Amino acid sequence: MWRSFKLALPLAVIVGAVVVLSKPACGCSTKEKSFVAAMKSDLRNMVAYQEVVFAETGRYTSLIDSARYRPSALVTIWIVELADSGFAAQAAHDRMAGMCAMWVGNVRAKPLPEVAESREGEPYCGELSPRRS
């Protein structure tokens, strides 16, 4: 009897650890994670769009040509700072409270205070939570 108990106890500890570690730290559902992923993806696509515009005109733009760049459904993107050598943008999702932001190049003000600690061209999302209707 003790032999099976000695084998079952470590197995129970391992299974318990896997269950605890597999839960998301943010408490987000799969649907909410997809909203965050859409905002981050749209910000990365904004960088590609801006680089094309820069290659064609020699400067970044605050005007978004919907024929060349369109964010995901329910995602709004806007340029919060535009400089000769960079830009900062934010993204919001209609079903999430909070936003994501990103900066590229030389910009004076980062869109969110925490973004100053992030790396250039890497989307950062602040405190996000589902919108309650």
Number of strands: 6
Unreliable runs: 7-25
Name the shape in a single word.
globular
Share of helix, binned? 25-40%
Number of helical regions: 2
Q: SSE string, helix = H, strand = E?
A: HHEEEEEE
Derived from helix and strand composition plus strand pairing, the structural class reads: alpha+beta
Strand content: 15-25%
Radius of gyration: 21 Å
**Largest sheet descriptor:** 4 strands, antiparallel
Strand order of the largest sheet: 1-2-4-5
How far apart the termini lie comes to 55 Å
pLDDT averaged residue by residue = 77
How many discrete domains?
1
Care to describe what's here?
By secondary structure, the protein is of the alpha+beta class. The chain has one domain (27-130). The chain contains 2 helices and 6 strands. The protein has helices at residues 2-22, 30-57, and strands at residues 75-83, 86-93, 96-97, 100-105, 124-125, 129-130. The strands form 2 sheets. The chain has a 4-stranded antiparallel beta sheet, with helices on one face. The longest helix has 28 residues, at 30-57. The protein starts with a helix and ends with a strand.
Brief overview:
This protein is α+β, with helices and mostly antiparallel strands and 133 residues long. Helix content is 37%, strand content 22%. It is built from two helices and six strands, in the order ααββββββ.
